C-alpha cells in the first residue's frame, strides 16, 4: 500500500497549512442551534461547540461547516441574517467565536462558515432603511422593489412562486401609510432578495468575507449560490412559460432563467476568488447550487468558488446502478472543473438518509428545500409524488432497521470515495428523521407557507442526544427548542461510545482509516459479475465493496479493515459495505 499521499504522514501544522486540505476533506456540518447547548436555554450555542471539540477530534473530521450563527429572528432557521458580521446573542459573542475557532484549530479542525448572499432578513438595517425610504431611493435600490401591475399596482409584478410556497413578491406599505411597491423574495417574505447589480452590495459582501477570513475562517459554504443574479426586464415570463422551457426539474441549461443560475453570477465569484487567494492558505468555498449537472463546473472552477455540492447521491435511491453512474459522472465533472468532487447524503434541508433508505424505493427521494427549490420556480418536486412520501405515507411503511443498515453501508461507501465527504451532525449516530413533531412545535417556514402540505425540515434539525437521560438527552440543561422523541435515547453518544459495531464507532473507524489510507483522487471500478454489487479500488489504497443485492457476496482477498455490518461466514451480506486492504 502506498502511503506517500496519506494525510496521516503530515504533521498537524503541515496539514493545516496545506493549500489542498479541502480536496479530500471530511467536513462535518454543525447546525449550531441543535448541536450542544452550553447555557441551558434550550438552544445550542458557540460555547457548546467549543465544549465538544474533543468529540469532533475523536470523530476524526478535517473541518466543520457551521450553518448560520448570525443574529436572526429565525424566520428560516438562521438563513435570514440580520447582521453578517456578528454572532446571534442567543448563541454567543464574537469572543466566543474566536475561542471556538482557536479550539478547533488547535485540534487540527478547519472552519467553514455559511454565507447567505441572495437575501438578508427583513430586520437587516438596510431593509428597514429601504422600507422607510421613498420609491426610487438609493436605499430601495439595495433590494428588488418593483411597482405592482393592475390599475393601482395591486397585482404582483409577476406570477412567480416563492420556494417556500406563496407568491415571490410581497407588497409593502409606504412610509406615508399607502399601499406601495412590491419586493422580491425567492424564499420566505422575511428574506428580501438583494440587488446584486448594486455595487454597494458587492462591496459589503467582500467586507464580510474579509471579516471572517481575518478571524481565521478557512472556508465558506455559499448559500443558494445559483441565486443572486437576476434579469427582471419586462415582460417577465409567466411561470407556466418557465416550466415549459425547463429541462424537467433539473432546471435551465442555458442560463436564461430570470433568477436561477444566470451566468452573471460568476462575475461575483471571480471577484471573491481574488480575495480568497490573498490568504495563505487560500480560503475555500463550496457552492450550494441546485443546477443542471452540465452547469455545475462553473461554480466549482478554480477561478470561481472552487467546489460545488453535487446532490445526486442524495437524490438517488439506494441502488447499485444509479450510484455507479452518479459516481462516475461526478468524478468526470470534478476533473473537468479542476475541483475535487463532493459527496453528501444528509444535511439540514433534507430527510435523513437513514429514513429515506427505509422507505419503499422511488419514495425515498429527499424532501426539503431541494425539492422545493425546483428550479423551474413552480411547484415543489414533492407534488410530483416524491418528497411527499414522508408527509403522506403511513409511517408503517418505514423499515427502521433496513434504513439504518443501508445508511451505514452508503456512508461507508461515501467515505471511500475520492473527493470531500460532507457529513451532517447526527448521521454518525445513525439518527433518522423525527416525524413525530407536533404541528404546534414546528418552526420551518416551508411547513407554514405550504399550509402543512409539506412537513418541512424540522425533523432533521432536532437537537442531538448526548446521553440517554436528562431533560434533553444531554443536549443541555433545559428543554430542547425542538422536541426530541423518546427513541433518541437509544442513539445517544454516550451509549455508542466504545461499543463495537455502533454507528458512532463505525464512523470513527472509517474516518481514521480514511486519513491513513487516503491516496490520490483516483478510483477504478472492478468488475464483480453481479450488477447488485459495486466494487472500486483506490489505486495504492484500498478496495470498497457494497452489496446492494439480497445474496451474500464473496469478498476480494485481503484484510477487511472495516465493514458497515457483520460479515456472514466471511461473505458480504446484503446492504453492507466493506473496506478491504489487499495483502502485500
Ligand atoms: C439554502 C439553505 C436552506 C435555506 C435556503 C434559503 O437552501 O440550505 O436551509 O432555507 O437556502 O436561505
Automatic annotation (TrEMBL):
Gene3D superfamilies in the cross-refs: Glycosidases, Oligo-1,6-glucosidase, Domain 2
Record-linked InterPro entries: GH, GH13_cat_dom, O16G_dom_2
SMART domains: Aamy (SM00642)
GO biological process: oligosaccharide catabolic process
Keywords tagged on the record: Glycoprotein, Hydrolase
RNA-binding listed as a keyword: no
Pfam families (UniProt xref): Alpha-amylase (PF00128)
GO molecular function: alpha-amylase activity
Biased composition (Polar residues): 366-376
All residue ranges annotated as the Glycosyl hydrolase family 13 catalytic domain in the record: 29-461
Start and end residues of each stretch annotated as Disordered: 362-383
Protein family membership: Belongs to the glycosyl hydrolase 13 family.
Protein known as: Glycoside hydrolase family 13 protein
